[in-house]
Amino acid sequence: MAADPRSEADIMRSFEALPDAAYVRLPTVALLFATSPSNVWRWVKRDIVPQPRRLAGRTTAWNVGELRRSLAAVGL
Length: 76
Prior knowledge:
Multidrug-efflux Transporter Regulator, Chain: A, Domain 2; three-stranded antiparallel sheet
């Protein structure tokens, strides 16, 4: 996976501006929950992070509205 050239602050501003119906990929989810990508998958299994959606082929993404509700539930 290629590194995202944007700064963490840019990613957070972009996330805040997205509508609830939008989708984001794993690096953004890891940043939002302040954890590693592998830990995001562990948390998905434990229902801390919502289940991602398979958009096409091997493309997996998370719904922004669901992520916002999960972040509020864990106090982030």
